[in-house]
Amino acid sequence: MERFVELIYEELLPDIEVRSLDPHDPVVVSELPKPWKTIGRGNYAAVVVHPDYPDRVVKLYAPGRDGWEEEVEVYRRLGRHEAYSECLHSDKDREFLVLKRLYGKTLYECVLQGVRIPKRVIEDIDEALDYARERGLNPHDVHGKNVMMTSDGHGVVVDVSDFLKPEPCNMWRDMKRAYHRIYVPFLHDRPVAIPSSLMNGVRKGYRFFRKSRRLWGSDS
Asked: What keywords were assigned to this record (predicted)?
């Protein structure tokens, strides 16, 4: 672990640039030094990995984006749990975290690729979110791109950065409804790949639906 942290300060931080151009779009990563690779980009931060340390990732927040302190606190409360990552190191001044890497496919990717999602995955994520609530957290922004199915068919939660937000969030509830009402009857036993254009249309439609529901005060 000590050598990995040294590599972050010696190789990664002097050259990498993470920028947030729009708060609603993924951050932009530029000047990434070799052999580091980007494996994830969210609206607040980027996640990179070094090939010599594949089981650890570095999550770097873009300058001016809030959330680093909150995410560190979330991982402190979660401790060790099989459905979550773990914070192995953090730096407040440079606003990055070293996290245990989680392997698998997001549920969004599973639907795109026609990979069957067993009910056990949904149950695992439900149990993980209940555990987070028991630790005084409020699961927020839990959707198909933030949860994964592991290679052995279990569910894990990838992104916990918003778990300290106080307002209610119904994304996971809505996703479970779609899983049970649409996925199970039509795709569970015979999964087929869904075109990305259709998935993007569903995503945009859902965002419009959520906005309209909040506008009319019926987000419950």
From this structure: Kinase, Serine/threonine-protein kinase, Transferase
CA–CA distance, 164 with 158 (Å, rounded to integer):
15
Cα 101 to chain centroid, rounded: 12
Looking at residue 217, what is its pLDDT?
A: 57
Residue 144 near residue 106 (C-beta atoms within 8 A) = yes
Q: What are the residue ranges spanned by the domains of the chain?
A: 2-100, 105-212
Closest CA to 148 of 159, 162, 160, 158: 158
Return the CATH fold of 2-100: Phosphorylase Kinase; domain 1 (3.30.200)
Taking CA atoms, 183 is separated from 107, 117, 128, in Å, by 12, 9, 21
State the CATH class of domain 105-212: mainly alpha
What pLDDT is attached to residue 213? 58
Q: Which residues in the chain show pLDDT less than 70?
A: 203, 206-220
Q: How many CB atoms lie within 10 A of CB 44?
A: 23
Give me the pLDDT at residue 24, please: 80
pLDDT at 162: 95
pLDDT at 36: 98
**End-to-end distance of the chain based on CA atoms, in angstroms?**
44
Q: Which H or E element spans position 60?
A: strand 56-61
